[in-house]
């Protein structure tokens, strides 16, 4: 099979493609080719038996989507997005990339006219929700985003459900928790500090905590994110029915609990590298974000995540740091 | 003040403009001008003290929105839409008119760059919801439309909330119940029969009932629809906060209860003009529609509707038939 990964140079895309390279197959079907599209060139995964192609293009430019699906990939994993902070800072860019780009893709598929009906996995976000919330957000809670990013994700979910219902493709939107611990350098996501305060101290570097440690949030590891994508790409979607946007499972905890988990796993010296520097802009954005979920539907459909923040930190140390860290 | 009504030649637009002509003011402000835009020419209301202008244009053509707001109307009431049956039959037309047209309007307002910040009232629909439902749909229930029309309305609601949050205009989306009894000829809305089975028999004409009389639905009169628009145009929106889509109040009843109300108000001979001709296409569409609501927020914010179907029929006889009907 041929798999197209949009946003393939990003963290989730890279890890998903590395996993495909390790597995060699997806849902029992051998993988012949993976195409990774992004605005920068994606790196080829090590040891892949499949053909790998990196395409540098901008999905929000008319005509690019048609080119990307010209070879009719059976699976399209759409991870490409301007992150929340950037979409809030640059209104036009956010709508262009996150909404128009996605719509161009969906339209390109619809207009092939040759019976092409790929599986489309779209990564949405818990940013489709906006405060105030109940203690736990249930599967039927309404989407009232408080950011343009969340608005764009919610709109794309609606489009995906309608295009799936009309039979143009077979899609699923999966609402990622905040992915933690994100490897690599900080990006422009307002949620970055949730990872920074774990990743940087484990590397011997100070990290800034811009919010109160009583902020509660919803996390899953990069490893879980890849598992979500694999499951969404291979599961039977007929049982999902027409409601094609799912809250993924995750783990809810406060920043204080994150810090205590770090202390337990890595010790006081590592925790001492977290510096408190309140940032009212970040604080205001995060205030509107969801804190906890009751994702019964996704769990019943076979999606799985971590059950403690210790586990999330240990996965980071195992997958990113070769099992060790700076004490 | 200057009021722009998009879709001003339609039923709700016409009735809203007639009401403005009778009142002469809106929220205590004298009305200087009403512009009614539509794809056909809107009729001037009788006895209006304000200047009336009818513009024939297509909002989904780039540039038209800019022209329509060139004179900076303080209030824009956006009623223009391709109805549900048509948006389902013609996928491209539905998205072009119902989504792109609305987005062009919102973008035109955003891009004025001169501090223009009108009130925007957008008529959405209970079609943003899709079955299965609980007994009554609450204010926090999620939008999972089962039609392209409902998808387009839900997307426009999200855009309106985001543009309002960002301060580009001050908007409110109001989700109309099915408006019953619709005057005039049947339109392409799949919900048309709810009105046809009342209106046609009262005119001495047979009407087709295409669904089971156990179908339950959510109604409000055209008079209430106008009241919703007036209230949405004049109320304090600061108290609404960022969740700018509201379920309007209405009256829930089965088709059997509609028929019994007709019998009570108009007699057996009128009811005998209803002919049962099942239509599986209509049946399938209606199956996914909401039946009942608990619109606490809208009621608390001062929106009002009917409390019986008798009342809905009597309003129709009073407002449309001069107080009489064909026995």
From TrEMBL, chains A, B:
Domain NAD-dependent epimerase/dehydratase: 3-209
Range of residues in the leader sequence: none
Keyword terms: Carbohydrate metabolism, NADP
Pfam families with a match to the protein in the record: Epimerase
Keyword NADP: yes
Single GO molecular function: oxidoreductase activity
Gene3D superfamilies: NAD(P)-binding Rossmann-like Domain (3.40.50.720), UDP-galactose 4-epimerase, domain 1 (3.90.25.10)
Top-level division of the source organism's lineage: Bacteria
NCBIfam families: ErythonDh (NF043036)
Identification of the protein by name: NAD-dependent epimerase
């Amino acid at each position: 099979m041929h798999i197209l990964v949009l946003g393939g140079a990003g963290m989730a895309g890279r890890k998903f493609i590395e996993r495909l390279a390790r597995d060699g197959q997806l849902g029992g079907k051998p993988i012949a080719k993976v195409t990774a599209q992004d605005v920068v060139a994606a790196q080829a995964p090590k040891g892949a038996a499949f053909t790998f192609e990196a395409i540098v293009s901008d999905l929000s430019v008319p005509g690019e989507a048609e080119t990307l699906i010209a070879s009719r990939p059976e699976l399209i994993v759409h991870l490409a997005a301007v992150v929340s902070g950037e979409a809030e800072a640059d209104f036009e860019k956010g709508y262009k990339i996150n909404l128009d780009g996605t719509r161009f893709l969906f339209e390109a598929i619809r207009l092939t006219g040759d019976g092409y009906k790929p599986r489309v996995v779209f990564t949405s976000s818990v940013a489709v929700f906006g405060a105030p919330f109940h203690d736990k957000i249930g599967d039927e809670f309404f989407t009232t985003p408080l950011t343009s990013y969340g608005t764009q994700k919610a709109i794309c979910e609606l489009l995906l459900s309608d295009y799936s219902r009309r039979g143009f493709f077979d899609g699923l939107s999966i609402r990622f928790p905040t992915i933690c611990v994100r490897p690599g350098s900080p990006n422009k996501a307002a949620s970055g500090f949730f990872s920074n305060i774990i990743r940087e101290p484990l590397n011997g570097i100070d990290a800034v905590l811009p919010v109160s440690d009583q902020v509660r949030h919803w996390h899953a590891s990069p490893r879980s994110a890849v598992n979500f994508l694999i499951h969404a790409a291979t599961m039977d979607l007929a049982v999902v029915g027409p409601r094609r946007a799912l809250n993924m499972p995750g783990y809810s905890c406060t920043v204080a609990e994150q810090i205590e988990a770090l202390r337990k796993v890595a010790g006081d010296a590592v925790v001492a590298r977290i510096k408190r520097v309140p940032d009212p802009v970040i604080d205001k954005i995060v205030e509107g974000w969801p804190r906890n979920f009751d994702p019964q539907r996704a769990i019943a459909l076979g999606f799985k995540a971590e059950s403690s923040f210790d586990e999330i930190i240990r996965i980071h140390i195992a997958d990113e740091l070769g099992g060790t860290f700076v004490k």
